Amino acid sequence: MAEYRLKTPLKEEDVRKLRVGDSVYVSGIIYSARDLAHRRLLKLAEAGEKPPVRLEGAVIYHVGPLVRRRKGRWEVVSAGPTTSFRMNKDTPRLLECYPVRMIIGKGGMSGEVAEALKKRGAVYCHYPGGAAVLAAERVKRVVKVEWLDLGIPEALWVLEVEDFGPLLVAMDAQGGNLYEEAGRKARRSLEKLLAGLT
Amino acid sequence: MAVECVELKVRRLEEAVVQLIRKAAIELPSDVKEALWKAYKSETSKIGRIQLKAILENITAAESAGKPLCQDTGLISFYVRSRSIDHMAVEKALRRAVVRASRLVPLRPSVVHPLTRLNTGNNTGNRIPNILWMLEDIDHMEVTVVLKGAGSENSSDLYMLPPGEGVKGVKRTVVEAVVKAGGQPCPPTIVNIGLGGTVDLTFKMAKLALIRPLGKRHPEGGIAELERELLRLVNSTGVGPMGLGGRNTALEVKIEYAHGHTASLPLAVNFQCWADRRATLRIHPDGSAEIF
């Protein structure tokens, strides 16, 4: 269980070194993307068009930030992760179309995503759900925002972060998966509990 | 004069409800904070303890910075209790308070049309905020606000059990639902259960369980006993904080019931995330008010 400090854009070899249980702090640029931004990124890729951000070695954060505008500038108030499950369907394709190296979220992702992470050399990191003020404290500034027509939570926010973490590597590029382990154990306990019910 | 008087009352209620929403968004009720501390102290999984520590640190950080503790400030529901209610005036005040609180606290604009997905920008919309009117034989008026995020709401479900399955069926369904939900509703959760009634009432029962403080058992011994047993069962699954394993999967299990049809046994499971944000405003007959 090592600790790493990484700078964006992330290099494939650095990401492939990470193992489940490691903790990571990320500095540099991260991109928010939820349901609608995923859809739009895929649509652009299918049309052969470029998105307004560079996703080489990128970190995608599943977040719909709480922001406010002060003196003409956006400020992040609160920005914890959203449930990653909702992006299960679009993520394998996203990883095929864009060289994203890290996804940050909560709750874990599907087996198909785990496969895609392995194939593409990317990891899924967990940040404690709801720890939104702590997360916002690591955001230095909003670099820009794209696709505000999707609404504030669904827009593509470009955030400059410093030592964003601690992130827990929960699904690594070797097939390690903490959620899968915990889920397997829970299903085993469930069988026992159900058998003992009166 | 009469119209002015009503308008003044609406303004005062609106002002108080803005403060109410602010408190709910920033500061957790003391029963929830205590339960989270207890969870942290009893957690044996290393990763589980890290999750709970971050949760506790975040609670302190939010309070000292005066910022909403979670970015998902949720859909807003009000539970209004009174002997007689001027529905139109109260609804007007509540809607206006939500709009103002969205800008002032601030809250994240999270309300969209279900199909076009267009965001209304101010957390109100068709039938939103959700208002539950409860006529009760009390002298004061109480407004409880609940800010509920989507992660926990998305994991919720309704089950139409064969009545013959009885209590055992209820236990099985609840424990299975908790394991299936895994880390998605941000455990340690509060599992709110509605039993009986017609399906709308079943969910309403679960929502009434939601506003009951943690640690306060159902007044009927049999139901209270079932709440205790379900909590023990749920915390034996090992789902753990954030679904990463551990002994603290739920902080509490609460049940409310209505009598139902002899041929059905509806069961609603409504999860609440650890960020169980609620606050209550009490307005006394003399006009004085308090928030708790």
**Using only CA atoms, what is the Rg of chain B?**
19 Å
- From N to C, what is the helix and strand string of chain A? EHEHEEEHEHEHEEH
How many domains of chain A? The number is 1
Category from helices, strands and their pairing of chain A: alpha/beta
Alpha carbon gyration radius of chain A:
17 Å
Q: Could you tell me how far the N terminus lies from the C terminus of chain B, measured between alpha carbons in angstroms? A: 33 Å
In total, the number of domains of chain B comes to 2
The name of the CATH topology of chain A is fumarase
Most extensive chain interface and residues per partner: A-B, 51 and 54 residues
| Strand ordering within the main sheet of chain A | 2-3-6-7-9
- Report the total helices of chain A: 6
Q: What is the average of the pLDDT values of chain B?
A: 96
CATH class of chain A: Alpha Beta
In CATH, the homologous superfamily of chain A goes by the name: Fe-S hydro-lyase, tartrate dehydratase beta-type, catalytic domain
Give the overall shape of chain B, derived from the CA principal axes: globular
- Total number of strands of chain A: 9
Tell me what you see in this structure.
The complex is a heterodimer of chains A (198) and B (292). By secondary structure, chain A is of the alpha/beta class. In chain A, 30% of the residues lie in helices and 32% in strands. In chain A, strand 2, helix 2 and strand 3 form a beta-alpha-beta unit. The N and C termini of chain A lie far apart (42 Å). Chain B folds into 2 domains: 122 residues, Dihydrodipicolinate Reductase, domain 2; 122 residues, no CATH class. In chain B, helix 1 crosses helix 4. The model of chain B has no long low-confidence stretch (mean pLDDT 96).
